[in-house]
């Protein structure tokens, strides 16, 4: 299958997405169209479309007659996010107990192989890929849709983990333990490991 050419809109959205997920653009940061157009040397309609992509993804919020802003995820938001994620990931752990998920293992291997200077957005991407692979391995389209609805807030929540996981080895170790607990089973142990993992995330 040939690669689809990357449009200017996609490229700009990707550049801004990376800056948001690396934490370079902090929560609440406004993104004026004129300023972005000047910075990246693109037309304002292109900026408008790229911002619309990120608003749709949930990474930005926009109010009428105001610049788009990087979405803020508060501790209360994270608590509520975990409240909703726990039963979804509990279903995942119960369904996958005793199995290894190759795509999740691959995401963890990529996380381990990232260079020390890799931006946090690259770590966010592999973290999301790992959890998404586990959910998809269940084989439930409805579970996929429910989980994907939380993707943007989950990504922004992982951005907050920078201050907790200054040593990336800790993040890798926790996810290795999670994958091993799911693979080794039984279901109760896998579910307990998922609950513990999410409680760590909630505490950030």
Automatic annotation (TrEMBL):
Transmembrane annotation, as ranges = none
Q: Does the keyword DNA-binding apply?
A: yes
Does Transcription count among this protein's keywords?
yes
One Pfam family matching this protein: GntR
Xref: InterPro entries: GntR_C (IPR011711), TF_FadR/GntR_C (IPR008920), Tscrpt_reg_HTH_GntR (IPR000524), WH-like_DNA-bd_sf (IPR036388), WH_DNA-bd_sf (IPR036390)
The molecular function GO annotations come to:
DNA binding; DNA-binding transcription factor activity
Q: What's the superkingdom here? A: Bacteria
Pinpoint the HTH gntR-type domain residues: 6-73
Keywords linked to the UniProt accession: DNA-binding, Transcription, Transcription regulation
What name appears for this protein in its UniProt entry? DNA-binding GntR family transcriptional regulator
Q: Which organism is it from?
A: Nonomuraea endophytica
**Which taxonomic lineage does the organism of this UniProt entry have?**
Bacteria, Bacillati, Actinomycetota, Actinomycetes, Streptosporangiales
């Amino acid at each position: 299958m040939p690669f689809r050419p990357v449009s200017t809109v996609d490229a700009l959205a990707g550049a801004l997405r990376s800056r948001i997920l690396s934490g370079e653009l902090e929560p609440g940061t406004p993104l004026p169209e004129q300023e972005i157009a000047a910075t990246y040397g693109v037309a304002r309609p292109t900026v408008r479309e790229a911002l619309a992509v990120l608003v749709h993804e949930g990474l930005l919020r926009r109010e009428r007659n105001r610049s788009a802003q990087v979405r803020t995820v508060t501790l209360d938001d994270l608590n509520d996010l975990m409240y909703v994620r726990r039963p979804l990931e509990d279903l995942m752990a119960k369904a996958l107990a005793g199995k290894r998920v190759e795509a999740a293992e691959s995401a963890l291997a990529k996380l381990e192989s990232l260079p020390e200077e890799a931006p946090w957005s690259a770590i966010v991407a592999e973290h999301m890929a790992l959890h998404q692979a586990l959910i998809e391995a269940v084989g439930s389209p409805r579970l996929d849709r429910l989980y994907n609805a939380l993707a943007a807030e989950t990504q922004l929540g992982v951005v907050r983990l920078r201050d907790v996981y200054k040593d990336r080895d800790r993040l890798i170790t926790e996810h290795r333990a999670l994958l091993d607990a799911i693979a080794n089973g039984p279901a109760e142990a896998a579910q307990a490991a998922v609950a513990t993992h999410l409680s760590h995330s909630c505490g950030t």
